[in-house]
Amino acid sequence: MEKISLKRNASLNGIRTVIAIIFPLITFPYATRVLQVANLGKVNFSSSIVNYFLLMAGLGVATYAIREGAGLRNDPEKLNEFGNQVFTINLISTVISYLFLFTILFTVPSLADYRLLLIIQSLSIIFTTVGVEWIYSIYEDFLFITLRSLVFQVFSLILLFVLVRDTEDYYLYALITVISTVGSNLINYVHSRKYTKLRLTRQLGLKKHLKPILIIFSNNILSTFYVNSDITLLGFMVGNYSVGIYSVAVKIYTTVKSVLAAVIIVAIPRLSFYLADNRMEDYRNTVNKVFNYISVLILPSVVGINLLSEELVIILSGADYLEAAVSLRILSVALLFSIYATVIVSLILLPMKLEKYILQATLASAIVNVGLNFVMIPAFQEKGAAVTTMIAELLVLLMSYHYAKEHIELKGILKNIGASLVGCVALVVVAFVLRNLIANVILYTCVTAGLGAAVYFLIMLALKNEAVLEVAGPLFSKLRNKKD
Predict the structure, then answer these.
(1) For residue 443, what are the domain limits?
(2) Interatomic CA distance for residues 246 and 230, integer angstroms
(3) What is the dihedral sign for C-alpha 38, 39, 42, 44?
(4) How many domains would you assign to the chain?
(5) CA 475: distance to chain centroid?
(6) Calpha distance 424→199 (Å, rounded)
(7) pTM for the complete prediction?
(8) Residue 315 located in a structural domain
(9) What span, in angstroms and rounded, lies between the C-alpha atoms of 6 and 9?
(10) Mean pLDDT per 10-residue interval, the chain, length 484 residues
(11) What span, in angstroms and rounded, lies between the C-alpha atoms of 464 and 453?
(12) Per the domain annotation, does 332 fall within a domain?
């Protein structure tokens, strides 16, 4: 199990996240044209409600199960007992979630028109629980879940184009959007028997499990709250125009953040395993390696978003949303803080069972974010919301670093950051030179991103960056073997 490449897992999880982002970008324009605004709005509204109950059903079990289960994977009997306990707890929270959902469904008159949609989309709740994806993370089987996701996404895409042909097909559209979740998780459950045979149990171990699960759950709620509060307060305090502008910047910000975070979280089971096995040297080396990989990726991402902010907004949303470029530049800095905070939280505080500190940092960030929004939004509209997000992400980073600093080798990290900054200077030069040579927005963006990435990669090689050398080494070896 330990021979599984962390680099391969990071790539696979990154690919899976990109797939999850790309497919909605394909389906959304089609659905918008066929279903029209009103019916698409019904589907999205009901989906937003179901997401709250999906969060309730999840209860933080998946994160907890990955952390604790990774340390037990060499003891199948203990892992099976643990798996049965958290699976049963998860099913109980799912039942409770459904009870709340159906209560409001039949007691809130304004939801009467959405009942069938809500019932259809609520299938994702039970099948997410049954899917036990945490089992695959524990055993680091990211190849299976990536291939499974791709197959069902393609299947859903085909169904969409074949079945959704009229404005009144929005129920079919809602069903198709959950088919990939339902199908994927059914396959998950069946295939999970390769690793463990899950059953319901009366021995829940609540005294041991409930407190950390609820802390993680509280952290998830706070994270959701403070991420969404900007747009909610913008709508109340300024109006729909600022919400529309800001949403474009947030979409780009969260997309890049999701892809980079996917690279990070694959290391959680490996690190939890090392800690459980008291292999501290392996643990520290892996943490340092992830910090290096992230520095290589995040710094050029931030610089690239700043350089291409206007072009990205125009390509994705049109010139009418060009004002979003300023907010996007601010959020790119927030991205830097957020990703480094994610590394510390996910790879140090969480595997070391210090989730109470994660909760403290998230709570402080949520309070600061919401409080500053009341000051910044009236004065600076969507730009003020972006600034408060940047400050909130910085606060999480500083607090997380304070709690984890004894486990962080800052000297080596700063050295790698310095090398990445040199490469970023070259990115800036490339962008400014090409700006005077290429007038077409799409061509300029593609050439700048491609050539800039190549130049950055070569500079990292010249500076002998460990992460880049680790990726490039096997490639160069294969090329040499082909020549020979």
Answers:
(1) 411-483
(2) 9
(3) negative
(4) 2
(5) 29
(6) 52
(7) 0.77
(8) no
(9) 5
(10) 58 66 66 68 73 85 83 83 91 94 89 87 90 83 79 84 83 84 84 85 87 84 72 73 76 81 76 80 83 86 91 80 88 92 87 86 88 89 90 93 84 79 89 88 89 88 77 57 54
(11) 16
(12) no
Q: Which amino acid is at 74?
A: N
Q: Which two tokens stand for residue 87?
A: 């699976």
**Which token pair is 336?**
């830097």
- The last residue of one of the domains, among 161, 180, 204, is 204
| CA separation for the pair 426, 446 (Å, rounded) | 17
Residues 6+ apart with CB under 8 A from 407: 284, 287, 348, 352
Contact 326, 381 (CB under 8 A): no
446: Cα separation from own chain's centroid: 24
Give pLDDT, residue 329: 93
Last residue of a domain, one of 178, 204, 230: 204
CA distance 432 to 440: 14
Identify the pLDDT of residue 326.
92
The verdict on residue 44 lying in a domain is: yes
- How far CA 34 is from CA of 20, 40, 156, in Å, comes to 22, 9, 16
CA distance 302 to 297: 9
Helix (H), strand (E), coil (C) string for the chain: CCCCCHHHHHHHHHHHHHHHHHHHHHHHHHHHHHHHHHHHHHHHHHHHHHHHHHHHHHCCHHHHHHHHHHCCCCCHHHHHHHHHHHHHHHHHHHHHHHHHHHHHHCCCHHHHHHHHHHHHHCHHHHHHHHCCHHHHHHCCCHHHHHHHHHHHHHHHHHHHHHHCCCCCCHHHHHHHHHHHHHHHHHHHHHHHHHCCCCCCCCCCCHHHHHHHHHHHHHHHHHHHHHHHHHHHHHHHHCCHHHHHHHHHHHHHHHHHHHHHHHHHHCHHHHHHHHHHCCCHHHHHHHHHHHHHHHHHHHHHHHHHHHHCHHHHHHHHHCHHHCCHHHHHHHHHHHHHHHHHHHHHHHHHHCCCCCHHHHHHHHHHHHHHHHHHHHHHHHHHHHHHHHHHHHHHHHHHHHHHHHHHHHHCCHHHHHHHHHHHHHHHHHHHHHHHHHHCCCCCHHHHHHHHHHHHHHHHHHHHHHCCCHHHHHHHHHHHHHHHHHHC
Torsion angle of C-alpha atoms 119, 124, 130, 133, degrees rounded to 10: -170
